Amino acid sequence: MRILVTGGAGFIGSHFVDRFIAEGHQVWVLDNLRSGSKANVHASATFVHLDLKDERLSQGIARIKPEAVFHLAAQIDVRISCGDPVFDATENILATLRLLEAGLANGMEFFAFASSGGAIYGEASGPQSESHVEAPLNPYGVAKLAVDKYLHAYNVQRGLKSASLRFSNVYGPRQGAKGEAGVVAVFCKRLRDGHAPCINGDGLQTRDFVYAPDLAEAASLVLQQRATGIFNLGTGRETTILDLAGRLCDSAGVDSLQIQHSPGLAGEQRRSVLDASKAQNLLGWRPRTSLEEGLRATYDWFRTHRQEEA
Q1: Is the pTM of this model over 0.70?
Q2: Identified catalytic residue from 121, 140, 154, 211
Q3: Is 287 helix (H, G, I), strand (E, B) or coil?
Q4: CA–CA distance, 166 with 184 (Å, rounded to integer)
Q5: Tens digits of per-residue pLDDT, 106-137?
Q6: How many helices (H) and strands (E) are present in the chain, helices listed first?
Q7: Which fold is adopted by the domain 2-170+210-233?
Q8: Facing residues of 125 across strands?
Q9: Coil, strand, or helix at residue 117?
Q10: pLDDT grade, residue 73 (50/70/90)?
Q11: Active-site residue 140, yes or no?
């Protein structure tokens, strides 16, 4: 197929691109390189340096004529969304609508969106399924939910087949450690640079960590089956940040007694974990990579890549 991956020079998107290339698809990567890196882009993919808000977007999509679009380009900093909700909505809602319109005008048959579980469902008391109350705590989560709802409307009004992929906390090689980065990347960089992890608060807050290449497998299954609707993609297992830091210290050969603590962040979620049984039952997907394996591979990548890849 002719597949377009927006944000395909970024951390998660580049793993999707690798998977699609390996399966023999023709892949285009559209990225503004604000946070992505061309070093992440597979040599067999066609790279297009373009912002979704650029007036040339329609012409660019017309040249590609993608049959399927995987939309991962986004403004991902929750703090920015809280400080400037209008900017966040412009980047994450309006730009997505421009992409949808351009795609539909050029023969797009399937659209998959990188949504978010934790940001949409809010505070967890246990694994959250797709039927859980949607209660985003910040504009970033509101924007993700808005696009999910728009996709439903596009299906009803325009017949577009689409899937919203609600990720849990994603980690793996190529993850950036700048800005509001994933905690795994931040800890790996500190350990690589000779510093112990520094935890915000008591470290008993929990997250559901899923390995990026495992998500790429889910994306492949969604494409193969033209699966539509909302799918949680996570492990269903909670890991405390304190446990995470200890595991990474083990990988780096650092005494976990050196772990530091700083004041907790105001408004931070205490628990986040997804129930991905729908993806298992309908797609045949389940995470293949254990946390131990994934953390080891991620730390090994950081050790051999001194630059901070996005």
Answers
A1: yes
A2: 140
A3: coil
A4: 19
A5: 999 999 999 999 999 989 999 999 999 999 98
A6: 12, 13
A7: Rossmann fold (3.40.50)
A8: none
A9: helix
A10: very high
A11: yes
